[in-house]
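Working notes for the structural subgroup meeting. M.R. asked for a predicted model of this chain before we commit to crystallization trials. I am recording the input and output together here so anyone reviewing the notebook later can reproduce the run.

Input as submitted:
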Amino acid sequence: MLHNYRLFVPQLHYIWKRIVNVVFIRRLRKRKFRIGRNETGNTTVVYELSTVPFPIPIKGIFFSKIIDFWQGEKFRTINSTFFYDKTNDLGSQQMRVVVLEHTPAVFKAVPSFEPISNTHQIEANFSNRFPTQTRAAANFYYGLEVELLKAISKAMHFQMDFYETADAEVERWGTLRDNETLTGLLKEMHEGRADFALADLHHTEYNLGFMDLSIPYNTECLTFLTPEALSDNSWKTLILPFNGEMWAGVLLSLFSVGFVFYAFSHTLDYIHQHEKGYRPEYDLYQRHHKQKKRKLRLRKAMRCNRWLAVCKWKLAPRFIRNWRKKCATSKKETIASSHYNDKKLKNLRMIPFKRKPEPWHDPLQASDIFDTFSGCIIYTYSMLLLVSLPRIPNGWPLRVLTGWYWIYCVLVVVAYRASFTAILANPIARLTIDTLQDLAESPVRCGAWGEQNRLFFQMAQDPHSQAIGAKMEHAPDPNLAAEKVGDGMYAYYENIYLLRQLRSTRKSEKARQTLHIMQQCAVHMPISIGLEKNSPFKNQVDRYVRALVEGGLTGKWLSDAIERFQSNIEQPPQEAIIDLKKMYAGIVALCFGYVIGLLAFIAEKLYWRYFVETNPAFDKYVHGIAFHKRVI
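Returned structure, recorded in C-alpha cell form:
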C-alpha cells in the first residue's frame, strides 16, 4: 500500500489496530552510487518499506515501523520476512480485558483488608495503595474463562488488565436502546475499548453484531428454574389408594347394596307375613296333631255319654235335680261377676297391634339383622371392612346375596390394601415442570435477562416456545428472580450451572426444595470468548482454544469452577421408607371421628332437650313404657 499521511490521522487509528499485516511503500529522494571512493553519475530511487507498529499500541501520533529499504533492485536486508504472523509473540503487551461476573465463566473475590480504627485513614490508605485506574483491578477474578485466557496469554506472551464497566451491576451485558445507543459490556466492545471480553457470551448473531467471538469452548444447557410443589398430602393417605370415580363407585355400591338387602328382607317378610309364616313341615305337623286330638275328643265324649247313662239309671232323680240346680246357680254367679258375657266374648277377636316406637323408648327388636335400613347400611359397611356378621340371615335369598357381596368386598379390600402399600412404600410425589410444554401450559410467568432471549423464543418454530416468549419478561437480578420462583409463580431462564448455584445459595432447606431445575434443555448454547471487532488475534485464539478443548483442560477448569455447588444436585428421595409423616392419615381420621362423634353427641343432647322433653307425654320418672295422652 502506498504511504500516505492521510491514512494515519487519529480518526483512522482504529483501522491499523485491526489490519496489521500490511506494508507501506514510500518513495525517498534519489541517491548516487558509490563505488569505492569514486562517485558515479548513476542515481537510483530508494523506497522505504514500513508497517504498523503492532503489537505496540498507537497513542496519539502514528509511528510506522520500518521494515526494509529497496534500492538498486535489491533489499538492504537479506532474508527479511514482511508478512510474518505478528500475533505469535505480543511482547508482553498489556491487553485490556473487560469481565462480567457470571457462573461458571467468571467469579469475583473482593480482597479483605485489616480493619483500622480511623475510617478516614482507611480511605486514605486505600486511595494511596490503589489508584483510580487500578482500583478495579484489586478484585480477584477466577473461573473457567479466566483460566482459559491465562493459558492463551502464556502462549501469545501478553499481560492482562481485568476490569469491569461502571454500570456492570445494572446493565451487565448491555442493551441496545431505542436511540441506537449501547450500554454495558456490549458498548465497551463495540467502541473498541477492550481487547477481550469474558462474560459467558453466547455464540449468537446478536453478539456477533457487536464483537468477534472465538470458536465455542463449551456448550451450556439453558433451561428454566421452576417452582416445585411437594404434594405433601400425608393427611389424606387413607383416601389416596382410590381416585374420585372409584370412591364414588364404592359409596354408591355401599348404599345401593344396603337398600337391596333392606328390600329383600321386607319382600320376604311380606311374603311370609311373619317369621313363622309359610312352613310346609310345620303345617303337616299341625294337621296331624289336629286329627289326633279329634280322635281323642270323640273317645272321651263316648265315655262321658256312657257314664251319664249309667248314672241316670242308677242315681235317684232328686239327687240329679239338685246337682243340676247347683251347677246352674254357680254358672249364673260366674256370668254376673264377669264383665263380658258369652255373646260379647264370641264377638271378641284378636287385632294385630305393633306399638309405635317413641323417641324416649327403645324400638322394637327386629326379627332379622336386615329388617331395618340402618342395620343394612351398618352390616354392609362392616362386611366391606371384612368384619363378620353377628349371625347368618334367615332367608336363603339374603344368604346368597350376602355371599356374593362378600366376594365383592374381598376384591375391593385387596385392591385397596395393595394400592395403600404402594403409596406408603413410594416416595412423596413432586409436582414439577420438566418440559417446555408443561411450562407453556402453566400460568407461571417467565423471566430472562435481555431482549435477545425473549426474541429467541418468539422467533422459534414450535408453538410452545412462542407461548413462553409471549409471557417472558426482563429479569435484571438473578437473586430476586430466584425469590420470585420460590413464591411459586415465576420461572427463570439461565444456564444450568448458574441455576444450581442459585438453588444452593438459598438459606433454608425448604427454600431449596421449592426450586426445581427443569430437566429438558430449551437449547444447548455454544459459549465463546469475546474479541474486539475484526481483531487480529482471532485466528491465534481459535487455534489455542481448540487445543485446550481437545486437551481436556476446559473440562477440568469447569469442574473446578462449579465444585462448590455441584453437590447440590437434586437427589431423588429414597424409596420404601415409611415414616411417621406418612401415617398422619390415621391421626387425621381419628380426629375426624372424634369431631363427628362430639357433634353427634351435641345434636342428640339438643334433640333430647328441645324435642323429647318438651313433649307433653314425656315422663322423666317412667322410661321404657308406652305413654298415652293424658286425659284431664
